[in-house]
Structure formats: structure tokens, C-alpha cells
UniProtKB/TrEMBL annotation:
Gene3D superfamilies: Helix-hairpin-Helix base-excision DNA repair enzymes (C-terminal), Hypothetical protein, domain 2, Nucleoside Triphosphate Pyrophosphohydrolase. Keywords: 4Fe-4S, DNA damage, DNA repair, Glycosidase, Hydrolase, Iron, Iron-sulfur, Metal-binding. Residues 35-186 form the HhH-GPD domain. Its cofactor is [4Fe-4S] cluster. GO terms for molecular function: 4 iron, 4 sulfur cluster binding; 8-oxo-7,8-dihydroguanine DNA N-glycosylase activity; adenine/guanine mispair binding; metal ion binding; oxidized purine DNA binding; purine-specific mismatch base pair DNA N-glycosylase activity. Its EC number is 3.2.2.31. Belongs to the Nth/MutY family. It is an enzyme of class 3 (hydrolase). Adenine glycosylase active on G-A mispairs. MutY also corrects error-prone DNA synthesis past GO lesions which are due to the oxidatively damaged form of guanine: 7,8-dihydro-8-oxoguanine (8-oxo-dGTP). Binds 1 [4Fe-4S] cluster. This is Adenine DNA glycosylase. It comes from Aquimarina amphilecti. It catalyses: Hydrolyzes free adenine bases from 7,8-dihydro-8-oxoguanine:adenine mismatched double-stranded DNA, leaving an apurinic site.
Length: 350
């Protein structure tokens, strides 16, 4: 039995029940693929259900405020995905009258849609014969053919895409693509793959050569940058607090946060008291400040580690807020989209 037939047979017997597998509606497929980029199914499924409930059509998503979309996305990370999702929804609703592009090449033109997502939508929704190549597929192919070309290199991307084209079932591209992704997720797992009962074990080159655990190969990541975030958590008469919206192109664009003092190393309370950001806010008013030590976090992003401390500033008079800052009711703080790091703090503190 040839490769794609074995995979499809395995898939039909072992596939998980997922709501996006019950439809070929491009809106739902697109939504699921964007959510599941860099996100495990178990984590992404509740978000998919929330989005399809809140925004059942692309028009509903297009008409939403960005803050609403970011709030619903809160906790998934990589927030550029949410912003691109909203931008593309508006483009499809307003410029394409709600009709999604129907080919791989046209889908690639949508903001936030790359090779993998375009291939998934084109094959699942329109039966176009284009293979998906995601992390699961890289792992299956590198092991099956015993290929040690780094999967995140230019050469590797081209090599694996070329191989994928030779393997896809031209009669069932949608089923095949879902089969190989599911196979990588459940059978040919990153750790402890089920090689003994694998339907491909009689022809898997890495199993023959004892290289299963060393494949796939990835080039080393960019050096991790350390950043030190010191947040000022104002409590004005235990009723109000101060927040601001992050702007620019850095992390968490357009999300909200508390006033931030970023330092180049870990600092103490004396440093915070003398900082101009705090002094400008409190002026000559009396206040009480303490470091909320139990909330100290090292928040790990893809290329950054954020060493985060929270300083609680209790004050009886409204602080001097400029146009970048907002004085908000503590009871309403959960309405604002914030990074999961701050969302967890809010849930534990307020």
C-alpha cells in the first residue's frame, strides 16, 4: 500500500472529532487555521468555539471593534494573528463581498495567510491539490525519509515542500492533508512516537537507522533577550487604577497594560521610587508603595524572557495622568484586552 493510502486509512480510523472537520466553509476553516498557528488543539478549540459563537460570519467579525477581537483572543499570544485576522475579515467583507478567494495563489495575498494556511484552505474548501507543510508534516517527512536538512532553513523549506507535492493524494487532497497533520500530532509525536504500532514502520528510514529521536533538525534559535518589566499598579481609594494602551510595533501592540518602568536589569524599590514615571504620576501627593513579591514572573516569549515585578501604589488622590494614560474603575478592568501575563495578575489581585 502506498504512502498516502496508508495515512488516509490510519486517519479514518484514528482522527479526533473537531468542529472544523464538519465543514468546508472557508470562513470556519480560515478561522481555525489562524487560531491553531503556533497553538495546540486543546488550547485553540475553546477560542475557535468562542469566535464562531461571537462572530458566526466574516461580516460579524469585520464589524467588530479591534479591542473586542483582541479581548476574545486574550491568552492565545502572538497577537499579530488577531490583528491580521480582523484586517483580513474587513477586506473580505468589504472588498470581496464576503467571498473568500478560491485558489492557493489568491489566498496567499490575504494578510496573515502564508503557505501552510493557504494550502489548508485551498485543499479543504476547494479540493486544490496543494500539500500542507506544518511542524507535524516536517516531522513525519524528515523521519520517514531520514532527512537531516534543517526544517527552518531556506533549503529545507524548499526540499520538504517538493517532497510533499510528490506524496499528496491527487484525488483526496483535503483528506490527505488532514491525515498527515493528524498523524504527526498523534502517532509520529515529537517525544515517544508510537513506532512499534506505526503503519509506516516497515518503510521508515529513520526507524531503520535509529535516528527517530534526532529528527527533525532545526537551526538554533535567535539568542533570547532578557527584559525587565516593572509595573505600577495604582489603587486610587481602592476604586480606580491607571492603564495605558501599548502602541508601536513591539510586543502586545494595541493591548492595555499598567504604567511600565522598563529597566536593563533587576531593580529594587528605591529605584522605582526615584524613577520619573512614578514621580510624574504622584507629584507631591502622599502614597504608599510595596513590591508585590508573590506575583513575580518570568514570562517566556519566543525570543524574549520578561522578568516582571508588580509595585502596588496606594493613593487617595487621583494621580496626574497624561493623554496616554487612562484612569479606570477597578470593577471594569477586565473589559480591556491585556496580555495573559497581566490577565493572570488581574485575576489574582483585584
Amino acid at each position: 500500500m502506498i504512502f498516502h493510502k496508508k495515512l488516509i486509512t490510519w486517519y479514518l480510523q484514528n482522527k479526533r472529532s473537531m468542529p472544523w472537520r464538519e465543514t468546508t466553509d472557508p470562513y470556519h476553516i480560515w478561522l481555525s487555521e489562524i487560531i491553531l498557528q503556533q497553538t495546540r488543539v486543546a488550547q485553540g478549540l475553546p477560542y475557535y468555539l468562542s469566535f464562531t459563537d461571537q462572530y458566526p460570519t466574516v461580516f460579524d467579525l469585520a464589524n467588530a471593534e479591534e479591542e473586542q477581537v483582541l479581548k476574545l483572543w486574550q491568552g492565545l499570544g502572538y497577537y499579530s494573528r488577531a490583528r491580521n485576522l480582523h484586517t483580513t475579515a474587513k477586506y473580505i467583507a468589504n472588498e470581496l463581498r464576503g467571498v473568500f478567494p478560491s485558489t492557493y495563489n489568491d489566498l496567499l495575498k490575504l494578510k496573515g495567510v502564508g503557505d501552510y494556511t493557504a494550502s489548508a484552505i485551498a485543499s479543504i474548501c476547494y479540493n486544490e491539490v496543494v500539500p500542507v507543510v506544518d511542524g507535524n508534516v516536517y516531522r513525519v517527512l524528515s523521519r520517514y525519509f531520514n532527512i537531516d536538512t534543517p526544517i527552518n532553513s531556506t533549503q529545507g523549506i524548499k526540499e520538504f515542500k517538493k517532497i510533499a507535492f510528490t506524496l499528496i493524494d491527487p484525488e483526496q487532497p483535503a483528506t490527505y492533508n488532514q491525515a498527515i497533520m493528524e498523524f504527526g500530532a498523534l502517532q509520529c509525536k515529537p517525544q515517544s512516537p508510537y513506532c512499534i504500532v506505526c503503519p509506516l514502520n516497515d518503510s521508515c528510514e529513520s526507524l531503520k537507522n535509529g535516528t527517530v529521536t534526532s529528527l527533525p533538525v532545526k537551526l538554533k534559535k535567535t539568542k533570547i533577550k532578557k527584559r525587565y518589566f516593572n509595573y505600577l499598579i495604582f489603587s486610587v481609594n481602592d476604586q480606580q487604577t491607571v492603564i495605558k494602551q501599548r502602541t508601536g510595533k513591539g510586543i502586545w501592540q494595541n493591548l492595555y497594560e499598567f504604567p511600565l518602568i522598563e529597566s536593563d536589569k533587576d531593580v529594587n524599590l528605591s529605584y522605582i521610587k526615584e524613577h520619573t514615571i512614578l514621580k510624574n504620576l504622584v507629584g507631591n501627593m502622599s502614597y504608599d508603595i510595596t513590591c508585590y513579591e508573590e506575583a513575580f514572573k518570568i514570562h517566556k516569549l519566543s525570543h524574549q524572557h520578561l522578568y516582571t515585578r508588580f509595585y502596588v501604589v496606594k493613593i487617595n488622590t487621583k494621580p496626574e495622568v497624561d493623554e496616554e494614560l487612562e484612569l479606570v474603575e477597578i470593577d471594569n478592568i477586565r473589559e480591556y484586552p491585556v496580555p495573559i501575563l497581566l490577565g493572570n495578575f488581574i485575576d489574582s489581585f483585584f
